[in-house]
Every structure is written in C-alpha cells, then in structure tokens.
Amino acid sequence: MSVDQVNTEWAIEFFRESLRTARPPLVPGEVSALFDDNPGREIPTDPESLQYLRNLINYILGGRTIIFTYNITLLIFIALFALFHLGETITERSKWRIIEHDSAVSESRRKTADDPEDSNEAVSSSSSTLEGSLSSQITLKVDDTDVERLPLLGNQRQEQRISGNRLIRNLESFLLYQPRPIPLINRTLPSNGTSLFISAYLGLNVFYHLYRLPFESKYFFAFADRAGLIFIVNLPLLYLLAAKNQPLKLLTGRSYEALNIYHRRVGELMCFEALVHFIGMLYWRLFLSPDWLEGDTFYNYITHPLILLGIGAFASYELLYFTSLGSFRARWYELFLASHIVLQIAALAFLWLHFFISRPYVLASLAIFFIDRLVWRIWMKSANVTADLTILSDGQTLLLSTDWDIPTAKSRGCLRTLQQSIRHGWHPADHVFISVPALGRSHSLQAHPFTIASAAPLVEPGDSPTHAWLSLLIRVQSGFTSSLLDCAHSNPRVAVRLDGPYGSRDPLNMLRSCDNAVLIAGGSGIAVVFPLAWDLVTSHLGKRKVHLLWVTHSRAQRSWIPEERLAELQNFGVCVTIPEPTIEAGRPDIPGYISDLAASREGQVGFVVSGPDGLNRIARNACARAVRSGANIQLRVEKFGW
User: Fold this and answer.
1) Are residues 288 and 344 in the same domain?
2) 413 CB-contact burial (10 Å; exposed 0-12 / middle 13-18 / buried 19+)
3) Which of 567, 571, 517 is nearest to 542 (CA)?
4) Model pTM greater than 0.90?
5) CA distance 218 to 229
6) Residue 419: exposure state from Cβ atoms within 10 A (0-12, 13-18, ≥19)
7) Which residue has the higher pLDDT, 104 or 128?
8) Keywords assigned by UniProt (predicted)?
9) Are residues 361 and 395 in the same domain?
10) 484 and 510 within one domain
11) Which of 55, 250, 356, 533 has its CA 20 to 30 A from that of 147?
C-alpha cells in the first residue's frame, strides 16, 4: 500500500470517527485496524477527492473554533446590560433622596404653618372611590381636577421642551407598543422593544451558524454540523434563564417572569436547531454524501449507537418543547412539572453520550440545575409552616394564610440575603412555590407558584420586622388547586412547604423614584399591585401621589382583599378606584384613565400593570400613546401566568 493511500485512508477515518463518535478522533495507528475489518472498500486517491475531504474537515473544525467564542460574546453583552442597570439604579436612588428630602421639607413647613386650608386640601386630594366610578363609557376623572380644561401636554415650557425631543418620544413610544396577537393561533406578542431584543439574539445565532460556511450542497454536512454546535453552546443559557436563583436577575434588575420569555425563545431556537441538525444529517447521508464516504448501509447508519443516542436527545428536547407550550401547561400542569424534570435529565444524558464536545456544556447545565433546585430551593429557601385555608365567597377562590415571628437577622450581607427563606420576610410582589404533602405523594413532589397577596413585613428605619402575615390568593382550576379546594372543605388547616421568596424589586424601585405612582390590576393581579401600594405609602422614602385601579370581573372578587385593608390604603392617601364589575358594566375606559393621569400629573409618572393579556396590552399601548404625546412615563408590566 502506497504512502498516499495510507494518508487517504487515515483522513477518511479521521473524518468519520470525529463526526460520529462520542470521543476524540482516532490517531493514525488505530486506523489500520479499522481498515483490516473492511479490506474490500475502495478508497479514492485522486487529488479532487482528497481536496474535497480536506476542505470539508477544515469547515467543520473551523466552525468548532468559531463557536467557542459564542458564550464570550454573550458575557460581554450581559456585562453591558449590568453596567446599564447599575447606572439606572444609581439614578433611581438619587431620585429617592430628592423625593424624600422634598417630602421632609414640605412636612416641616406644613406642621409649622398648621394651615387648616392645607389640611382640607390634603383630605380632598386623597379621596377615593371604591365603587362604580368607572364604566365602559365614562373616563375616570382624576381627583377633583377638571381634566378636560387642562392642556394635553402641560404648560408651555413643557411643550417647548417636548417638541425638541419628538424623535426620542416616537422611538420610546414604538418600543413600548405591543402589537395585536398573531391571527388564527391567537398567540400573544410582547412589546416591540422585547421583540427587537429577541430578534438581535436570533440574529447573533444566525451569524454564528452561517459564518464562514460554504453555500454549496456538497458541503451541506458542515451546515448541519454547525446547527448541532449552536444547540450545544446555548445549553447553559437555557438553564440559567430557567433557574429561580439566577444572577441575571441581580445583574439586569428584571424579574424571573420578565426573563422567562427569553428562556422560552432560547428553547424554541434550540429545538429548531436540533431539527435542522437531525434532518440535515439524514438528508446529507441519503442524497448528498459521496458514495466513497457512505461506508455502511443506511440501516446500519441509522441504528449506529451514536445515531440512536442523537435521536434520543432530539426526541427528549422536542417533547420538552411541546409539553412547555402554554396550552399544555394550562391543561396538564402537573404532567408538565413531572415531564420537565425527567425529560431534561434524559436529554442531557443522551447528549453527553452523543458527542464529546457537548460535555463541558452539559456539565455546566447540570451544575446550574442542581445548584438551583437542590442547594438553593430545597436546602436554603424551603420552610415548613401550618396554614389556614379559607374558601372565599365565589366558591372558586382560596385564601391560604399563615403568620410567624421573623428571626432576628445576624448579618445583612448579600449572600446572607440570598440564603434566607420566606421566614425572614419578603419584598412586595414576590412569589413563592407551595407544596402540600397532605394531598398525596404526587402533590408532595410538586411545587406551584403563587404571588404573595399580603403586604411585606414593615421594617422601621434601623430595626428588623418582628412578625409576618402571609396570604396567597389561589384561583381554583384543575389538578392541584382542585384537590386543595376539596381539602379545604374537610380540613381547613394544613401543613405547607414554602419555597421562596422570589421576585425582583425593579417595579418598586421604579415607583419610588417617580413623583406619581399608578397601579392597575385586573382580577387576581391585585396580588401584585396591592403590596406595592402598601409599601409606597408606609415606607419612609418620601410621599408621592398613589393611584390604585382594580378591575374586577364580578362582585365576588371584591372579597379577595378585605374592605378594611382598602380603607387603610385610602386613609394613607391612596386614590383607590374599583369600577363596576365587567360582567355588569363592560370593560372600563383604561386608555382614558391613563391619558387623564398622564396629562394632569406633574413630574414623572410610574405605572405598574398586572392582569390578563388583554388588560396588559391596553394599558401598555395607552402609555405608549401618552409618551408620544409628551408624557414622562415609566412602565412595568407584571404578567401573571406560568
């Protein structure tokens, strides 16, 4: 056998073994044994075939070199967002100090003057309407001000300032705007700003997929191989975005719910790349590969252990995608929880055995998963309590409530705060996962998320809170909540395991930095906005005008928040408005309400909206129109749903 033929044989086996085995390529000394098993195979020695093979190997290995920089690029972008968030936090804190100082000065002057007229004005400005002030035909008037006599854009000085920033206002309005749902499938779309960010992420992956790839059918194998690499390098990001205790929340200031949309888009991209990789490899083997590279029959190819492992990984991740769809989660949430754990462990095992390059990324993903689930959530964040179950007047809503003495904090470090369970308190709009072992063995292994509807424990300056009162509003659906309702009929007191708290302080920090705060809730969204309103008026971070609008579907939903709690908010100065139920009076004029508030308030107005998709979109787009008209608005939308 000539030297050229030996080199050719080694090159071909180098290609085959490097692409279809789960270990590094063979060395030349191992190749001869492989050829002894198949001495009849004809190996081409013509320069054209050799050059083709060299080029194909170079494209494949070059792609693996390029793709290793992908996560470095992601880290650079995350660092930029972290710096932006740091600057935003510093700006907000400076605004807090200004508002707190101005409030202290105003309070001092008021006490010194002790003017009865000022006192009467304060009482008038804090007036609230608890029923029937907002119908589907009438726009709510803010306080006692005749809004229709006010200029839409404020005073002339403000109008002159606004006119010079028209381009910026139009851009901000465009980024805030949320398009209609996709027709036919009725899929809700995010805001334009979120869609552009997701498009940039997808564009980065398209760039890495196509960079330095030849657009020739004979090199299609390299295209299919690159799809598998794109899948692999996105694994740690997918698991990082799925973790409840993720550093991205601290670095970007966004809540788990806000980051969850990116987790889903990353998962969809990965499933698409897996599909491209799987179909691409089959298509290349059936139609495009040279005869002298095919080797075994197609049956032997498809039943090769490596290919079967790849099919197992592909099937596991595709099933993960379909069981994660919103329609599936809503109907079979318990099955979603169980399958999510089993399928992802199986998928990672298949992927580990399928291709050796994936192993560092599989290890990183497993580390994220186990640290989040076992170390943080089960060991450090879990607490057992005994809770009372109360069936509310509508018969389909439960109130889970409990209380306890808060342990004295020994230290206030950042790590200590992350380690603390719900027993050490929580922040407004945080949520917890609950498990109820009394419902059965299967339910004891499940954890279901609910927003904390009660106010966070009040912390006086320099002191620690001493007692916590926790309440959860639980809308009865099927599965877990239905079993919990049955349990409440026979046993209104149960043992509950709480995992949490989780959440982000970004909405609260934004509201604190604004001169005016507006909170809009739809239905059970009151569980998000009520604790925020309570914190704003009871904290010692300055006084601001706070408006709370709660849109209910039926009168029975009013029992979700006790009347005395709403009355306390009113006494604190919150303008509370609860329109007639939509089942009786139709939908209220939310755009008119937002437009009036944005036009009549001086300074920056912070909006927090929490409700169903329809309400969120209406409020978001009303804010977008107000921004285009010149209003100074900050908006956070806290969507509930898992």
Assistant:
1) yes
2) exposed
3) 517
4) no
5) 20
6) middle
7) 104
8) Membrane, Transmembrane
9) no
10) no
11) 533
DSSP string over 216-243: -GGGHHHHHHHHHHHHHHTHHHHHHHH-
Shared domain for 561 and 510, answered yes or no, is: yes
Closest CA to 388 of 371, 373, 403: 403
Helices (H) and strands (E) in the chain — how many of each?
27, 11
Q: Do 152 and 219 reside in the same domain of the chain?
A: no
Backbone φ and ψ of 494, nearest 5° = -135, 160
Tell me which residue range forms the domain holding 29.
1-43
Closest CA to 331 of 445, 449, 181, 482: 482
Mean pLDDT of 210-234: 94
Question: Are 57 and 15 in contact, with CB atoms under 8 Å apart?
Answer: yes
| C-alpha closest to that of 262 among 250, 270, 273 | 270
Are 238 and 309 found together in one domain? Answer: yes
Q: Find the range with the poorest average confidence among 405-409, 507-511, 534-538.
A: 405-409
d(C-alpha 31, C-alpha 249), whole Å: 51
Number of separate domains in the chain = 4
Indicate if the alpha-carbon torsion angle 523, 624, 139, 510 is positive or negative: positive
Q: Per the domain annotation, does 26 fall within a domain?
A: yes
Question: Residue 125: CB partners within 8 Å, gap ≥ 6?
Answer: 143, 144, 545, 573
Domain boundary among 379, 399, 431: 379
Look at residues 123, 49, 461 and name the one whose alpha carbon lies nearest to residue 291. 49
Contact 572, 119 (CB under 8 A): no
Determine which helix (DSSP H) or strand (DSSP E) holds 161, and give its type and residue range: helix 156-163
**For residues 530 and 151, which has the higher predicted lDDT (pLDDT)?**
530
Task: Please give the full DSSP string across 364-389, using - where no structure is assigned.
Answer: HHHHHHHIIIIIIIIIISEEEEEEEE
Number of alpha carbons in the 13 Å side-chain half-sphere of residue 561: 26
Coil/strand/helix, residue 285: helix
- Residue 145 covered by a domain: yes
Residue type, 427: H
pLDDT over 90 (residue 134): no
Alpha carbon 632 to its chain's center: 26
Contact of 611 with 521, CB cutoff 8 Å: yes
